[in-house]
Amino acid sequence: MTQKLQTNLDQIVARYPDxxxxxxxxxxxxxxxxxxxxxxxxxxxEAAHQTTGTHIFGARDGMIALRPESLLLRDGTSIxxxxxxxxxxxxxxxxxxxSPWLFDDGVALEAVDYWxxxxxxxxxxxSGVPMKNIVSARPQRLNIFPYRYCTFWNNNKGCSFxxxxxxxxxxxxxxxxxxxxxxxxxxxxxxxxxxEPGRFSAVFLTSGSIFSGAEPFDDEVEYYxxxxxxxxxxxxxxxxxxxIIGTAFTKKQLQHLYDETGLMSYTAxxxxxxxxxFDRLCPGKSEWIGYQGWKKRLVDAVDVxxxxxxxxxxxxxxxxxxxxxxxxEDEALQHTLSEAEDLARQGVSTVFIVWSPRPHTPLGNQKNxxxxxxxxxARGLHALRVKYRLPIGYDDYRHCGNHPDSDLSxxxxx
Length: 414
Ligand code: SF4
Description:
Elements: H1 8-15, H2 21-32, E1 34-36, H3 38-42, E2 71-72, E3 78-79, E4 91-96, E5 99-104, E6 107-111, E7 113-114, E8 135-138, E9 141-144, H4 164-175, H5 183-193, E10 202-206, H6 218-232, E11 242-245, H7 251-260, E12 265-267, H8 275-281, H9 283-288, H10 291-305, E13 310-316, H11 329-344, E14 349-354, H12 371-387, H13 404-411
Parallel strand pairs: 1-4, 9-10, 10-11, 11-12, 12-13, 13-14
Antiparallel strand pairs: 2-3, 2-7, 4-5, 5-6, 8-9
Helix pairs in contact: 5-6, 6-7, 7-10, 11-12, 12-13
Bound molecules: iron/sulfur cluster.
Residues 150, 152, 158-159, 162, 164, 208-209, 284 line the site of iron/sulfur cluster (SF4).
């Protein structure tokens, strides 16, 4: 074994030859986070690159500062990662031969690009708000975060990994981001963004939960309908490539959402595939809908949106937190994949994000899982989609780029 194979990253690359090394690297960069050197930050050009700040969730170092929104690898893979304090052992983004590179332990690993800024980022809306604070972008997707609060925090029952409220407070003061977007203004900005030829292939929308209304969450549904109707005016067809991450709605609400808008796919994040942990770590979701209720509503959504157009997301790693999580990664993996299979056989896909412990959250002082765990989880979730023939095009490497498991759909086809 060479000296190089002694690194954890190379050991995992050698252990899983079916997983592209760049996806393993991406996953580890998500797991450990990044630190930008001064020289790397000097390469950041606000006119040319996307910079951080518009997301409804905060950075791992708790700061709002001018930094790259995220990174691209040489094969086009997005790394959605977050600035992380040096004492948490992140990867370093530094400069080599005048370009940004990823470094670990002094070794230059891979060239990276900062995400390019779309044309509309230079413009402001008629109300004077920068358009990028109304609609933001991933390399190929438009992101709308219409409501930057979540009513589960009204009685302090928000999810244990979530910093939406502290980010809202910072974002309002420091960034001039509206807490709640005007649907008409969203439609105008989407129209402006679509003027850039060939840049965007989908529209995505997510916000905090809103439990008010005649039936719980009716107000959330109606607000999404208002926004999607305005966005729909920018398209010639009734349906347009789109995804929402919303609360788990009733079948009646889902049908209403589907019938009234151009929405083509639906996601309701269950966050953790274990009932006891769901109750503890997502107490608001548990109080209003419950674990079994959440699963049932996901399955109901398949009747409305169709097989292969509904999924749920995990914040992978929280299932291993103390004191109530699984003790062993083997046990956590076996349990998670078993629950994911129960959903997959009913037409619901599961994707994960690598949990990034953030300050100002109840789980913020704990560690995420091993790289080996995340790669095994990615392979397992991808294998379920192959077994149950569930396409994931609406949430894949191209449209989202935040899920190591759906990155595999690019190179290991169905
Ligand atoms: S549902 Fe949970 S993760 Fe989502 S915004 Fe509300 S508290 Fe945060």
